[in-house]
TrEMBL record:
Provenance organism: Oryza glaberrima
InterPro entries: FAD/NAD-bd_sf
Protein name per the record: FAD dependent oxidoreductase domain-containing protein
Source superkingdom: Eukaryota
């Protein structure tokens, strides 16, 4: 009833780009299909390898061969613009129109400055896209205490304005946009790839970038339709009528495990002032589930949201003017980032699984990796290093990302596990309290989805000393297999930290003297050590 009263507007690409009840039903069908999928189910083949060079291709109508074609424009526009600024001939294929959603993205200024460093946005334009700026932000777990931080996810930016600026910059730099075009298939030849479109057209290029997000058909083919290892379910609103609206919540839990639909879930909240008005506020409720056990439908989660949100925000639901209803599904895989599986095809953004498994939405992780990716892709295209093995170096193993898996598992309610319903909140508060005691150098990277070896060792050590009684429950909740697997990534995190800190400075002058292919490979190794150890995150920015 609430959603029927809201003008849903036009639907756009990207997570959170649709607000209607029909869109909610469609997403619930996708979620049901994820839970029901069998590992041996047939997956449509989008990419095929054709032996030999591309011959007899008709370039009629004055078309041309692109250096790079980006599939998916909402976040793909950032990579495309960065590459176009480097002098490559780039095109974007988008099934809808390239347009940012109405709902704000929340981000830190530090992450926005990555776009300035890459050179595709100016500091003046950053001020133009900021619609809200607030401090401080709270982390709290079931009345156990509150932790307040400054300048973390404290900006609300307008995706509509940001994407429009990127679109103008992309076109002015010589980029081509193909809107209203859907990808049908890709034929990869020895020298080029050909994108076949659903309207019968085709476009040739040297490299295809898959920026089609979590539900990319190419990713589905590569992963053989396998179930995700975890899913973050998100529902929420942007509403008017909040009198107390100057601070935000980064993560807040007001209760232990409870029922939503037929499933037990641990619910978390986020709340941010919105830029559309002084009493406007965005409220998210989210939970982590294992699709092998199933979970509540988004519609069931929304019903729970309507029941619980007034108490969380200390408001009366009937007094609020609901402007938008927000919902999303964010699947994640332990095998991430996703290595390139084909010559001339590379995943970026959410399609590559580069985002943290405990975050929802990959804009922050995209900004963090944009400089690394745009430089690496440019070198690969310029040097014609577009075989699958060379492209795999752009989405390398990152132990800090793999180590994050334990956190999602620990935050998920799991059926038939003999742990206290309050365990998740107790564990989270123990970790956050320890990080706060250890200082900003430990707490701030973690709150921005960056896992580093030193801070992780300090936090785990302090938790073990101060809360040894929760260790048995951790083993029950996560399981010995996950703990063992995580231990390997933990060791590799320390190893990558050592390599990046001590070996990188010694090797870098030698790397610059190598032949083209070897130089490209070793530069990617050095980047993998740095980013895989979280050492790209610089304190004090």
């Amino acid at each position: 009833m609430i959603m029927d009263k809201i003008s849903s507007g036009e639907e756009i690409g990207g997570a959170g780009g649709a607000y209607s009840y029909n869109a909610l039903k469609r997403l619930d069908q996708i979620w049901s299909s994820i839970c029901e999928v069998q590992s041996d189910s047939k997956v449509p083949e989008v990419v095929t390898r054709v032996q030999g060079p591309l011959v007899d291709y008709d370039l009629g109508d004055g078309s041309e061969i692109f250096d790079v074609l980006v599939c998916g424009g909402t976040l793909g526009i950032f990579v495309a613009t960065a590459l176009s600024y480097k002098g490559l001939r780039v095109g974007i294929i988008e099934r809808n129109i390239i347009k940012g959603r109405e709902q704000e993205w929340n981000i830190s200024r530090k992450e926005l400055m990555e776009l300035v460093e890459v050179g595709i946005l100016s500091e003046e334009e950053i001020e133009q896209i900021i619609s809200s700026d607030f401090n401080p932000s709270r982390c709290a777990f079931e009345s156990k205490g509150e932790i307040w931080v400054e300048n973390i996810l404290n900006l609300g930016i307008s995706p509509a304005k940001l994407v429009e600026i990127m679109k103008e910059r992309f076109v002015s730099s010589g980029g081509a946009i193909f809107e209203g075009k859907s990808l049908s298939s890709i034929s990869v030849h020895d020298d080029f790839a050909v994108l076949n479109l659903s309207d019968g057209g085709s476009l040739p290029c040297r490299l295809v970038i898959d920026a089609m997000g979590n539900f990319s058909p190419i990713v589905r083919q590569i992963r053989s339709g396998r179930k995700p290892d975890g899913v973050c379910l998100v529902v929420g609103t942007c509403a008017r009528g909040f009198d107390r609206n100057t601070t935000s919540d980064i993560i807040f839990s007001s209760s232990s495990i409870r029922r939503a639909g037929n499933s037990g879930v641990q619910l978390f909240w986020e709340g941010f002032p919105a830029g559309s008005g002084p009493t406007d506020r965005t409220t998210y409720m989210f939970t982590y589930v294992d699709p092998h056990f199933g979970g509540p439908k988004l519609e069931e989660l929304l019903e729970t949201f309507w029941d619980l949100m007034p108490a969380y925000e200390d408001v009366v639901l009937e007094n609020l003017d609901i402007m938008r209803v927000i919902f999303g599904i964010f699947p994640t895989y332990r095998n991430s980032p996703l290595p390139a599986a084909f010559d001339r095809v590379l995943q970026v953004g959410d399609a590559s699984g580069i985002q943290s498994p405990v975050s929802f939405g990959g804009f922050g992780s995209l900004t963090r990796h944009l400089g690394r990716l745009s430089n690496g892709i440019y070198e690969a295209v310029s040097g014609d290093l577009l075989d699958a093995l060379s492209l795999q170096l752009l989405n390398p193993y990152m132990p800090n990302l793999s180590a994050s898996w334990l956190f999602q598992r620990a935050m998920s309610a799991r059926p038939q596990i003999d742990v206290s319903p309050t365990f998740i909140n107790e564990l989270l508060f123990a970790n956050f309290e320890s990080m706060q005691k250890l200082g900003d150098s430990v707490l701030r990277p973690f709150l921005q989805d960056v896992i580093q070896f030193g801070p992780l060792v300090k936090t785990l050590g302090l938790v073990m000393i101060t809360r040894p009684q929760i260790l048995p429950s951790i083993f029950k909740q996560a399981g010995p297999g996950v703990i063992l697997n995580w231990s390997g990534h933990f060791v590799m995190l320390g190893y990558y930290t050592f390599l990046s800190t001590f070996i990188d400075p010694v090797l870098r002058p030698w790397v610059e003297s190598l032949p083209l292919r070897n130089k490209y490979q070793w530069k990617r190794y050095l980047e993998a050590w740095k980013y895989g150890a979280g050492l790209d995150y610089r304190q004090g920015e």
